[in-house]
Amino acid sequence: MHTRTDAVRLLEEWVASAALRKHMYAVEAAVRHYARLMDEDEELWGLAGLLHDLDWERHPDDHPHIGVARLRELGYPEEVVHAIEAHAWPDRTDVVPESKLDRVLYACDELSGLVYACCLVRPNGIDDLKPKSVVKKLKDKAFARGVHRDAVLRGIELIGLPRAVHIQNVIDGLRAVGEALGVRGVDRAAR
Ligand SMILES: [Fe+2]
After folding, report:
1. What 8-state DSSP symbol labels residue 177?
2. Cβ neighbours of residue 91 under 8 Å, at least 6 residues apart?
3. CATH class of residue range 4-190
4. Where are the domains positioned within the chain?
5. What is the CB neighbour count within 10 angstroms for residue 33?
6. Distance of CA 76 to CAs 10, 18, 80, 82, 180, Å?
7. Which of helix, strand or coil describes residue 184?
8. What spatial distance separates the first Cα and last Cα of the chain, rounded to whole Å?
9. 83-139 pLDDT, tens digit each
């Protein structure tokens, strides 16, 4: 079994951008939070979150195929690799999100980006962030333009939870590692 330490080493080898690394850690945190809520294998699920954008920086045109091929070579569990393939559906792969992990990774990816962006424009960061504020920014297309709204909405459908519940879960997941992500109020004040 590949450990988190192995996965972090791989991430650091492939990804130089601090922003992309942070995104991958944020998605990992959200997916791990769901694993705890759903009583699933947190270590296994965490690998999918951590490595889902492994090849994004090196191979933007072939994402996620190159990363997926490397993970298969390294013997990563098929469940993890499948979820990574499915997170790029339907634009980049034909792999439809089916398993619980597929759906959770899909639903956490773009939404984590939006939640993160919301934290950056608030004095208290993630400390008092509520789903309502995130929904407002979801509808404001001029805010955090890089976040694909279609994918956020598709993710909410795939996870099958009320929108506010899902957003709260992602906030809780990110809050658990808020210090490392630099999204807490105290971190923001120190800047
Ligand atoms: Fe991502």
Report:
1. T
2. none
3. mainly alpha
4. 4-190
5. 25
6. 12, 24, 7, 10, 26
7. strand
8. 39
9. 999 999 999 999 999 999 999 999 999 999 999 999 999 999 999 999 999 999 999
What separation in Å is there between the alpha carbon of 110 and the centre of ligand 1? 6
d(CA 138, CA 6): 35
CA of 20 to the centre of ligand 1 (A): 8
Contact 144, 114 (CB under 8 A): yes
pLDDT at 186: 76
**Distance in Å, CA 115 to ligand 1 centroid:** 13
| Residue written as token pair 């105290």 | 186
Q: What is the CB-side half-sphere exposure of residue 45 using CA atoms within 13 A? A: 24
Task: Give residue-wise pLDDT tens across range 34-93.
Answer: 999 999 999 999 999 999 999 999 999 999 999 999 999 999 999 999 999 999 999 999
Cα distance between residue 137 and residue 140, in whole Å: 5
